[in-house]
Amino acid sequence: MLRYLTAGESHGRSLVVTVEGLPAGLEVTAQQLGVELARRRLGYGRGPRMRFEADELVLIAGIRHGRTLGSPVAIEIKNSEWERKWTQEMSPDPGAPSTKLTKPRPGHADLAGMLKYGFDDARDVLERASARETAARVVAGALAKALLAQLGIEIVSHVVQIGEAKAARTNLPLPGDLARIDASEVRCLDPDAEASMIAEIKAAAKVGDSLGGSVEVVAHGVPVGLGSHVHWDRKLDSQLAGALMSIQAVKAVSIGAGIEVASRHGSEAHDAIHYDADRDRYLRPTWLSGGIEGGISNGAPIVAEVWMKPLATLNRPVLETVDTATKESALSFKERTDVVAVPAMGVVAEAMMALVLANEATRKFGGDSVAEFARNWRGYVENLSATPSAVGVGPQAGSAPYGGGELPHG
Ligand SMILES: Cc1cc2nc3c(=O)[nH]c(=O)nc-3n(C[C@H](O)[C@H](O)[C@H](O)COP(=O)(O)O)c2cc1C
Ligand SMILES: C=C(O[C@@H]1CC(C(=O)O)=C[C@@H](OP(=O)(O)O)[C@H]1O)C(=O)O
Q: What residue spans carry the region label Disordered (predicted)?
């Protein structure tokens, strides 16, 4: 089992993440984790903070000479502005000077959190509710990705929609597409859609408004057998939906053809099972199920789409609220804000998918060292291949969003 906890406020000294359950011997460097953090800062339409935030990393525990020790890993991510701007406002000391925020923003945790925890200052809620915390998740996710790479599992995401601009749905993105996706200003594979997305973002920014959208996240190389049908909380689709839905501002998650499948006939809604006698493998020509049947991975790519609402803090604050100090009507307070964060959310979604899959992989393959973990996985997969119960996928063809050809991983 892989467990992780994050701590830290958006404008506090730093974020901290502790990851427990990684086997010993996994190669990890601050530079490698920094690459993932830099990807999360990408994306046209993010606010000023992403231009100066450095995400400076300190490897505190559990890693020695570039490899995990099997003990809990603790990592600190420093907040660049702390010393310059926030030492008083975010001081842990009693009586430090601060300005109370009493005009809670609709769409944020501000008011519900103030009422629940008995605060008279929205900052006591917003600092932790902020998506700054996703930097810590991305670091944990980078460790999970490194572990999954030992099994040949790779995860890729791309932006499908920003505002009303949508990318054309074609074949699933492959890990080799990541460089091109990250080079796009909105992490989108479709250049025409990218241009429309940027135009929409510019228009929204001009009037002080915000946008939402969606990303697709795909895990390639996942073996048959992660997750289980035996309990609700062991189902891979349920774990993925919860993990992806936990990302700030995410309002919907679908697996495979998702909501689209509901309007199809049953005869056209499921992935056929074929058998390749030459390779002694079952083949799944499509991925309508998103690579999960009955809560168990079926050997096809795991596919999820994740939808994000338009961000709730607006540069032109027009949302009505009530001043909690005076009870008078007011406009919600204005904080520095992104116009759109869908491209960054894709990188966070990759991290969340990696953490769910790594948790299930450690549950299935166990082992105290990476060598033992990989040996257990190899024994399982080789045994599958030697029997008629092997599951594989064939070469990619066709351009329908949910297949129509056979998939590239065998
Ligand atoms: C990467 C990322 C960046 C975000 N940036 C902002 C932002 O700048 N302004 C904002 O209002 N919300 C932003 N959000 C969303 C809020 O954190 C989120 O809507 C808020 O905490 C309330 O949670 P909920 O929408 O999940 O209910 C961001 C979310 C993500 C994933
Ligand atoms: C700090 C990050 O995102 C922040 C998420 C966020 C929110 O309300 O969620 C609001 C903004 O915070 P700030 O006012 O400090 O600029 C974003 O910049 C980050 O992603 O690292």
A: 87-106
| Averaged pLDDT score across all residues of the chain | 93
User: Atom 2, ligand 2: which residue's CA is nearest?
Assistant: 132
Query: Residue 383: what pLDDT?
Result: 83
* pLDDT reported for residue 134: 98
Range of the domain at 189: 3-392
Assess if residue 409 is contained within a domain: no
Here the contacts of 30-34 (C-beta below 8 Å, separation 24 or greater) are 30/57, 30/58, 30/59, 32/142, 32/146, 33/57, 33/75, 33/139, 33/142, 33/143
Distance (angstroms) between ligand 1 centre and the Cα of 210 equals 11
Work out the average pLDDT over 330-346: 92
Q: Is residue 45 part of a domain?
A: yes
ipTM over cut 0.90: yes
Whether 236 is in a domain gets the answer yes
Question: 284 a known binding residue?
Answer: no
53 lines ligand 2 (CB under 6 A): yes
With a 6 Å cutoff on the Cβ, whether 134 touches ligand 1 is: yes
- How many angstroms separate the alpha carbon of residue 162 from the centre of ligand 1? 15
Q: If you take atom 1 of ligand 2, which residue's CA is the nearest one?
A: 132
Tally of domains within the chain = 1
CATH code for the domain in which residue 19 is found: 3.60.150.10
Q: Which ligand is nearest to the CA of 338?
A: 1
The two structure tokens encoding residue 394:
């064939």
